[in-house]
Write a structure and sequence with these properties.
The complex is a heterodimer. Chain A is an alpha/beta fold. In chain A, β4, α4 and β5 form a beta-alpha-beta unit. Chain A is globular, with a radius of gyration of 20 Å. Chain A starts with a strand and ends with a helix. Chain A folds into 2 domains: about 180 residues, Rossmann fold, CATH 3.40.50.970; about 100 residues, Rossmann fold (3-Layer(aba) Sandwich). In chain A, strands 2, 3, 4, 5, 6, 7, 8 and 14 form an 8-stranded mixed sheet that branches. In chain A, strands 11-13-12-15-16 form a 5-stranded mixed sheet, sandwiched between helices. The mean pLDDT of chain A is about 95. By secondary structure, chain B is of the alpha/beta class. In chain B, about 30% of the residues lie in helices and about 15% in strands. Chain B has 8 helices and 8 strands. In chain B, β7, α8 and β8 form a beta-alpha-beta unit. In chain B, α3 crosses α4 and α4 packs across α5. The longest helix of chain B has 15 residues. Chain B is globular and about 50 Å long. Classes of the chains: A alpha/beta, B alpha/beta. The interface between A and B is large, with 41 and 34 residues. β10 of chain A pairs parallel with β2 of chain B.
């Protein structure tokens, strides 16, 4: 059974978090994500959860990591400037394999930029923004329905892979209202149980993910952002240990690239292929609808990181990929790494969506 | 069980320098925790970055060694997500009062049920002796080679003004008093702040005329002014001698607190 609602994207995100069992939110007000915090401030206490308005985004990120170790499904929500402040602790979460969800309702940057306008300028920052090598998972919703569903999915991926997972929304989807269908229940994938007696950071399984020794359950686990051995003890000067640890943190995500891939392939025989995620999906859909041309293909991506490179090979006849993004071609460059045919970035800055006419012009322009 | 059972024996030897005051403070803290009768599985130690913050890693309990300055924000998440846990935070003067200053005043304001033990060595020890927000005026460090020109913070006044329920200051000389103060902090619902001035022979002492560790400890002792005596002096209109600092229980009250075990 489902129940229809007419919600704003940010409301759908907050409700998705509640459905997923989020019991701790630590956040700081920032446009255009604030409605998520406001909604959870009203709803979480009534469900036995905790809402904390922290003193800044650094503290917000820290608080959800602490809450996660204490056993909570924990989330924060922010936008560009706050996202930048979170970077150090995002790296800490990656290093300590702490499940947590970070929502970034993207706005125009750099700096304070365009607080009320839409953008996708943080797509590389989410992948590489903290120092050192690591890997994360990032999802991009293109509908209010996906704001709900992908938020649930973020929690499941975070718990499964013990990694910070990002809902990389944009102001357009965050503030847009449309009809959505709310299911009675949602799937929940929990954390891998910890086997008592094992070293807490030993990852013996092929998935390279250690069981989660939650605080307060008697495992005496030491969690540190320093390079650590299987026991969790600092061992910051061993070259081999550091290499093995960082490789495992990256491999546990990269090796699962196909398993977590989430995309739609439309008209796989087409020669001209659009690729989009987030708000630009809507404009591509309009063009597809207007043209009804089997020679125009469309790859719609929901899990952007790790990038689903195998999806590109589904378009065997592709002569050109066209990538509308609300940035200067961040994911277009990633796509260029994987294909031999021309990749045409269709960048748009300023906060407005691409118009269908702009995409048609790009389609009709000679390479 | 004795307080020694709280140590993670397989992590020894520790990284603290010979003559460091931090071990004394950790001993006092664990002795106080032990007297509380708390179970290891329900006691969490959180710390930031710096010499003091390495303490959490030597304790046989769940512990979270976090990023520089942010221990209180992490601890807030731990405590609010599970109010049944006892959360003790180890920090230092640089970690707490410089990079973590904002988290410090807000944790005090929230009066969240944490006990914070600050090892104040008045210097950045881990990075080799740079001036900190508590380096006394005129003192030498690698970044104040002509003498510290900035007035220091009084961490206890800061904590009290920002709303903490319990505030105490002692030194590594006053081990019995320090242990009692930590215990009082652990017993008090809400935010408890215990500042322990410690000697740092490696980074502070050798640049500031304390060639011997004992000289520095003696300096801490002789420059401590008991709160009761300080109050008496103020009442009598006497001048507080320069270089003296107040020790004792400075604040104890019962303001509404958050995160207290129901």
């Amino acid at each position: 059974m489902t129940r229809p609602e007419f919600w704003q994207g940010n409301t759908a995100c907050a409700e998705g978090a509640l459905a997923a069992g989020c019991s701790f939110f630590g956040g700081y007000p920032i446009t255009p994500s604030t409605e998520i915090a406001e909604h959870l401030a009203a709803k979480l206490p009534k469900k036995g959860g905790v809402f904390m308005q922290m003193e800044d985004e650094i503290a917000s990120m820290a608080s959800i990591i602490g809450a996660s170790w204490a056993g909570a499904r924990a989330m924060t929500a922010t936008s560009g400037p706050g996202f930048s402040l979170m970077m150090e602790n995002i790296g800490f979460a990656a290093m300590t394999e702490t499940p947590c969800v970070v929502v970034n309702v993207q706005r125009g940057g750099p700096s304070t930029g365009q607080p009320t306008m839409s953008a996708q300028g943080d797509m590389m920052q989410v992948r590489f923004g903290s120092h050192g090598d690591y890997a994360v998972i990032a999802l991009c919703p293109a509908t209010v329905q996906e704001m709900y569903e992908l938020t649930v999915k973020c929690f499941n991926l975070a718990d499964k892979y013990r990694v910070p997972v990002f809902l990389m929304a944009d102001e357009t989807i965050g503030h847009m209202r449309e009809k959505i269908l709310i299911p009675d229940t949602v799937e929940r994938v929990g954390r891998k149980p910890f086997v008592p007696g094992n070293p807490p950071f030993r990852a013996a399984d092929p998935d390279l993910i250690p069981g989660f020794p939650q605080f307060g359950t008697g495992h005496h686990v030491h969690v540190t952002g320093l390079t650590h051995d299987e026991r969790g003890y600092p061992a910051a000067t061993s070259p081999q240990l550091h290499m093995d640890l960082v490789k495992r943190l990256v491999d546990k995500i990269e090796n699962a690239r196909d398993e977590m891939a989430d995309y739609d392939v439309i008209n796989p025989d087409a020669e001209q292929v659009f690729i989009a995620y987030g708000a630009p999906v809507r404009t591509v859909q309009q063009v597809m609808h207007d043209r009804k041309d089997p020679n125009i293909g469309f790859l719609r991506i929901r899990v952007v990181w790790p990038f689903p490179e195998k999806a590109l090979a589904k378009f065997k006849n592709a002569k050109r990929f066209l990538i509308p993004e609300m940035n200067l071609g961040q994911i277009a460059r990633e796509i260029e790494r994987h294909v031999k045919v021309p990749v045409r970035s269709i960048p748009k800055l300023g906060g407005e969506l691409h118009t269908p006419a702009e995409l048609v012009r790009a389609l009709e322009a000679q390479p | 069980m004795s307080f020694e059972d709280w140590y993670r024996q397989d992590r020894l030897p520790h990284i603290f320098c010979a003559g460091c005051g931090n071990g004394t403070v950790i001993n006092c803290t664990l002795a106080a925790v032990e007297q509380m009768g708390w179970k290891q599985e329900e006691t969490i130690f959180v710390s930031g970055i710096g010499c003091s913050s390495r303490a959490s890693g030597y304790i046989l309990a769940d512990s979270l060694h976090t990023t520089h300055g942010r221990a209180l924000a992490f601890a807030t998440g731990v405590k609010m997500a599970n109010k049944g846990l006892h959360v003790v935070v180890f920090t230092g003067d640089g970690d707490l009062a410089a990079i973590g200053g904002n988290h410090f005043i807000h944790a005090c304001r929230r009066n969240i049920d944490l006990t914070v033990v600050c090892m104040n060595n008045q210097i950045y020890g881990m990075t080799g002796g740079q001036g900190s927000p508590t380096t006394p005026l005129g003192c030498l460090s690698s970044t104040t080679p002509y003498g510290c020109a900035e007035p220091p913070f009084d961490l206890c006044e800061l904590a009290a003004a920002a709303g903490a329920n319990y505030v105490s200051r002692w030194t590594s000389y006053h081990v019995k008093e320090l242990e009692k103060a930590v215990k009082a902090g652990l017993e008090t619902p809400g935010f408890s702040f215990i500042e322990a001035l410690v000697q740092c022979p490696t980074a502070f002492g050798r640049r500031n005329k304390f060639k011997q560790v004992a000289d520095h400890v003696e300096h801490l002792r002789s420059h401590s002014l008991l709160k009761a005596k300080r109050d008496r002096m103020i009442e009598n209109g006497e001048q507080i001698p320069a270089g003296m600092f107040v020790v004792g229980e400075l604040t104890r009250r019962n303001r509404p607190a958050m995160g207290v075990k129901p």
